[in-house]
Amino acid sequence: MSKQLKDSTPTDSEVILGILNNSESALKRLYTAYFPMVLQLIINNNGNVDDAKDIYQEAIIVLYNKVKAGDFELSSKLKTYIYSICRRLWLKRLTQINRYGGDIRDFQEYLPIEEDEAEQHNDRNVQFVKMESALQLLGEPCKTIMEDFYIHNRSMQDICERFGYTNADNAKTQKYKCLQRLKKLFFQQK
Amino acid sequence: MPAKAEEVVFSAEIRRSKKMSDNQLLEVIERYLNGEMKADERKKFELLRKENAEVDGKVVEHKLFTNLLKQYGERVELESRLNAIHDEIDVHTLKENLMVHPVWIVQLWRNHHSKISVAASVAIFAVLSALLFTGKLNNNDSSKIVELKNKVDRLDRSNTNLSRSINAIKSEKGKPVADRYSASATGFAITSGGLIATNYHVVDGVNAVSVQSASGITYKAEVLYSEPQHDIAILKITDKSFEPLGTIPYTFKRAESNLAEQISTYGYPDGYPAYVPGSLSSLFGQNGDTLHYKVTMPINPGNSGGPLWDSKGNVIGITDSKEAHIEGEHFAIKAKYLLDAIKNIPADSLDSKIVLSKKNTLAGLTEAQKAAKAKNFVFMVKVY
Fold first, then answer.
1. Across the strands, what pairs with B188?
2. First to last CA, chain A
3. Complex confidence, ipTM
4. What pTM, to 2 d.p., does this model score?
5. How many CB atoms lie within 10 A of CB B171?
6. In 3D, which of B227, B302, B314 has the Cα closest to residue B270?
7. What angle, rounded to 10 degrees, do the helices at B53-87 and A168-188 form?
């Protein structure tokens, strides 16, 4: 009984508070609650299961970032918002892959989503893709040093020990060199 | 004041930062961005940023870049969390339940459309080829070609034959009564010795042929040679009373004529001579055949087998037949085929080699003069 309650659709404010508090369970309930709706949209409009996963995760990330950034105003039901974002993203994807036949079979009501909202998200995705490939090209040990220091906020002391540098200055020099190379790799990409 | 002096010292120190490695500058920037500087150090650094655009640029760039790296890390982490959640969902079952199943006919089409398409193509091909082989696709039905022969009908002809044989039996002399021909058309001289060109359909299946000159004299003739596929027949005047004609005033033009050429024909549409002008409307006949020209001229039954002249008086064709449904649109066999037919006449059926006229004496004459000069070479062909 309690499990069922837990699995049931969370309220919109539960979701938003959950995201703000980094609640894993809230994220999970959000995800499981609306995935079927999006799966239904995609698979009945020329898409497959993997497309549905991609689109849905993108939409969840958009929501997540907006909530985290504090500029999310819920003007409709969260369900409608998510559906509308997915619909917008999927239409765009369909057009890109030339599979858009001119109409889409809808299952929910939806809101018009502004173009630049999706655009912004897209720009950031492009940057992330660039960062990912720059990190790949960077290679070890630089990649781990960069991740440890700038992403996981590890101290130089930790890093020193992990990589067996004899003194902190050596580690700093190494970190500096790695960062310069990473920047170079990142900005070289078109 | 001391503060001022100190600032100067710090600036100088940072300016020396050119010498001080970029490495060390970066460390300063990081300490600044991480809020690890003490208040007065911070103040000094901010002042430096204001003064030194290069340093300021580096600070901004470093901040943006490390933020992006940080966000990238967060994104990767979020994605892995989402993937973990996703992996717990039974997507396959969900899919089965959520797929909108279209009605059976649509499903049938989706699953088998390639097979259905192939089957349909085969069926269409079969029907088309069946139609083609049975001749249903030939346009005989829809646009019927009415031959311009002044036809009194084959039944009538056999009737005449019948009455003629009755008469023959009655008179016991076998003399045909009067001049009762069953149909008339036109023919024109190709040699002065009495070779006449006309259409094959004019003489097809007839008992006897005669030609009548412009002056009204009838001469017995026979079919010397014919090419049914081109609807061409060459007659030879066999009558003993026939006197050779003068020099043929027109020549024959083997080369294809020009579109929109002014043309004319002379013939016996209703048993009486008639001159008809017109224009060459197409170098192709019905459905694009290359045997015929398409001509626009008001010709009538009986013009079949007549000469088709261009404006210079060259024979460019033989007036042939009429398209049933379009008023004023007719066809003429190109002269090339006539010339080929003349060449194909077996030598042993000829008394002498055929020499075609090489001099066109119609050129430069008015239409009236042309008609007057040419009429003696155009005959009414009568069949029995």
1. B197, B378
2. 54
3. 0.82
4. 0.46
5. 11
6. B302
7. 80
